[in-house]
Amino acid sequence: MSPPPESRFCLEVLADTDPGVLIRLVERIQSLALTPMRLSAQWFLGERVWITFVFIGADEISIETLTRRIAHFPTVHFAVWKREPSPSI
Q1: Torsion angle in degrees (nearest 10) through CA of 39, 52, 61, 34
Q2: CA 12 from chain center: how many Å?
Q3: In which order are the strands placed within the sheet that holds 38-44?
Q4: d(CA 70, CA 52)
Q5: pLDDT band at 7 (very low <50, low <70, confident <90, very high)
Q6: Distance of CA 81 to the CA centre of its chain
Q7: Is the dihedral of CA 43, 41, 48, 44 positive or negative?
Q8: What are the chain's domains?
Q9: How confident is the model at residue 3, as a pLDDT?
Q10: pLDDT by residue (tens digit) across 21-69?
């Protein structure tokens, strides 16, 4: 019997291009003892940045808590998480 697949979550955030927004997001992630496997940020509509974090092995409650906290940042317009399928080998 194979072990259960690790949980894989994607957190997507749309925020203002404020110079400190990325570090504030990473600090919030760190405060919950989470470490993203991947982080990407892309300019979106000129004045906004689309930031994606991928987490492996995190629990759903931590990701939900993180999303709720980030959604209250004044420079964040949108924050949502989703479960991603584990990549097939």
Answers
A1: 10
A2: 5
A3: 38-44, 48-56, 8-16, 76-83
A4: 13
A5: confident
A6: 7
A7: positive
A8: 8-83 (3.30.70.260)
A9: 40
A10: 999 999 999 999 999 999 999 987 788 999 999 999 899 999 999 999 9
